[in-house]
């Protein structure tokens, strides 16, 4: 029951606003994530002896089932040796442990980890593929593979490794794009794949690999049921050199292919440049790091903002080489890029860059009036609609338990979210509506914007804003 005329006036004003749909909307549509917006932290690992380059990094928040540090990194020393180091934060690393059991002279290693033993509860938890320099370049013997229980003592399986005779990864006629190889680039393991279909992503193992005609290096694609017998996909590279005179016109290879709800992302190494006549100056693959994206993992398009890093940036620790990005995501949704860096006249080291992704979403504060706690105790809640878009399903992608809303967006004010979706803005898409405790939102006189923050179910930060008006800062008449 309303006890005074001030309350009645306020109720009429607010209820009328709700009835006519007065919902002030100021945030932009889903802008996605800037996958080229990396912050360079410089060199984080320098070996006591020799070089450290071509890192392969895995993050596991569960400590790899053995209480280990969450970051593990394997690297090549340039002399046929492979080493393993561990870290709590990606910045400070343990003493290196030399790997055992790999045949030949392994370079360019790529390691994957599966706590389930790759479909066998008693099977190995680590698998590795590498370029065996003793096998040369122009035969499939350049590839090696092994498996391990601990990530550094390996049982080599190279004798069981082969390629399909009709769809060869390497070794085609001299001068072809895939005449030779310098080994693996990025490997994806999919335990639930059906292992039947036309797409390479229908199979348990997907391999992006280096292919070369003897001059340029490009990225090829292959797939496998067991990681031992490989079949090339398609008749050409999935990512080749860029346009003439571009920074990567000569080479586009070594890096990481990463999947999330937005699609496939490839941070790769490149080389090239302008020959002075608008053509391509042959380069080296270690001249910079770029970004490409794909809807299906097969057809790639270079992103804007390339190159992300380049040897001509004037950054001392990578002014001679900056390449081979190894990208992982931590428990907070932040991305870590470990890459090979070399200063002029120095030795090869491992550097780190980070990306702190935030998905910008549209929200609708209903209504856009906020009452300060105190006199109007009958109004206890504020509803906030998180609006979906064609590339963002709020009802499925928002981790509801992480949501906070208020003056800064960090206020612990969540009461609940409705289970049943609603199309709040009548665009044909289901939206998520949540209720927040008004007295915990922290709004003050003069505030004009409300903030909502949280996480997606796959670990990215969410942020949305909408306009608000604060009442009870002056007496109603």
Task: Kindly list the characteristics that best describe this protein.
477 residues; mainly beta; Immunoglobulin-like; Tachylectin-2, Chain A; five-stranded mixed β-sheet; five-stranded antiparallel β-sheet; 40% strand; elongated; disordered N terminus
Topology:
Blueprint: H1 5-19, E1 39-45, E2 53-59, E3 71-76, E4 82-87, E5 97-98, E6 106-113, E7 126-132, E8 143-148, E9 154-156, E10 162-163, E11 184-189, E12 205-212, E13 217-224, E14 229-232, E15 251-260, E16 263-271, E17 288-294, E18 300-302, E19 309-310, E20 321-329, E21 335-342, E22 349-355, E23 358-360, E24 362-366, E25 369-371, E26 381-387, H2 394-397, E27 398-406, E28 414-417, E29 432-437, E30 449-456, E31 461-467, E32 469-471
Parallel strand pairs: 10-14, 23-31, 25-32
Antiparallel strand pairs: 1-22, 2-3, 3-4, 4-5, 6-7, 7-8, 8-9, 11-12, 12-13, 13-14, 15-16, 16-17, 17-18, 17-19, 20-21, 21-22, 24-26, 26-29, 27-30, 28-29, 30-31
In short:
With 477 residues, the protein is mainly beta. It contains 2 helices and 32 strands. The protein has 2 domains: 5-32 and 359-471, Immunoglobulin-like (Sandwich); 39-356, 5 Propeller (Tachylectin-2, Chain A).
